[in-house]
Amino acid sequence: MPAKRVILMYISEVSGHHSATLAIEKALKALRPDTEILNINAFHYTNPISEKIVNRLYMGIIKATPQIWDYLYDNPKVLENTKKIKDTIHKFNSPKLKRLFNKFNPDVVLCTQAFPCGMVADYKRSFNARFSLVAVLTDFVPHSYWIYNSVDYFITPAEDISLRLQKKGVPPEKIKALGIPIDHEFNNPLDRGRIMRKYRLQPGVPVILIMGGGQGLGPIKKIVKSLETLNRDIQEIIVTGTNKKLYRSLKRKAKKSRKKILLFRYTDKIDELMSVATVIITKPGGITTAEVLTKRIPMIIIKPIPGQEASNAAYLIEKKVAIRLDDPKEINVIMEELLAEPARLKKLALAARSISKPNASLDIARMLLHLS
């Protein structure tokens, strides 16, 4: 079988969408080292100036007025009213895509975010392109911005998510419930004792991992303040991502804290950190969630962002793999209850195991390699 030529598309460098394409690229190379791959930030490639403006606008809305994002997210009225604008943008981007596709001549184009998926879907329809277009959903709720007739396959996180996609009109033969792609290294068992020693963590003392995604979002300072009042010994690992202001603030607090606190900026050691975690407090982003499920860690979700995060949280709570808490000041209470009930922690971990798809990136890579 000749080597495949694959284009992977995402938006935003520090994002789960990018992590997903990197995981698929790594899996493709593991299975077929001769696979030719382009891994592209589609927004930057087509609209480098607009990318910065839109990213800043999005972050501003999420931080200041998240209810606006909640209104925009998967809203049929917004979808209909923005169709002409979207079509104009896609038409404007077509010449750049044409040059890219003519030069690379891909067998498959895979998108982990709806914007490039729609752009490529319209291009494929307009130019009768022959490559296969694959949409990979990295959240637990399939919104309507993904749906185009010229998408050949939709990869969903789970079978019941596939059913939701069918209700939106997607033929079942186009849907594969292969999971959310994460680095397959998360499957490899790590020596917990070695990692504990590496980070000078004390054996037998619970480790609380606190994360706010790549951007370090969420009420992390309030969480840390609440945990300070916990009437038991704990160890905290906090990942602040690219949030420099948060890192500096927590670094000052860590020096005065009665609890042991390990502080990380953006790091590629998440696999190790999750391997020693007793509980994780996190944003419910799709990629982070898939990693947590693979590691079978009890999960607490604090005040999810309206839109996809709130939808992810609802799904995870329905599946009994997570606990949602909207007031970060109460994290000390729920943490005290959890740590006092090992059986409850074990139940959450077993539920995580039941819905995780740890081989998603390899399964998706195998599918791509066998597309005709």
Name the descriptors.
17 helices; Rossmann fold; alpha/beta; 372 residues; six-stranded parallel sheet; 2 domains
Describe this structure in words.
- With 372 residues, this protein is α/β, with parallel strands linked by helices.
- The chain has two domains: 5-180 and 358-370, Rossmann fold (3-Layer(aba) Sandwich), CATH 3.40.50.2000; 185-355, Rossmann fold, CATH 3.40.50.
- The chain is built from 17 helices and twelve strands.
- It has helices at residues 16-31, 42-46, 48-64, 66-72, 76-81, 83-104, 114-127, 159-167, 192-198, 220-227, 244-256, 270-275, 286-295, 308-318, 331-339, 342-355, 360-370, and strands spanning 5-10, 36-41, 108-111, 132-136, 153-155, 175-176, 207-211, 235-239, 260-264, 279-282, 299-302, 322-325.
- A six-stranded parallel sheet has the order 2-1-3-4-5-6, with helices on both faces. Strands 9-8-7-10-11-12 form a six-stranded parallel sheet, sandwiched between helices.
- Helix 1 (16-31) crosses helix 17 (360-370) and helix 6 (83-104) crosses helix 7 (114-127).
- The mean pLDDT is 89.
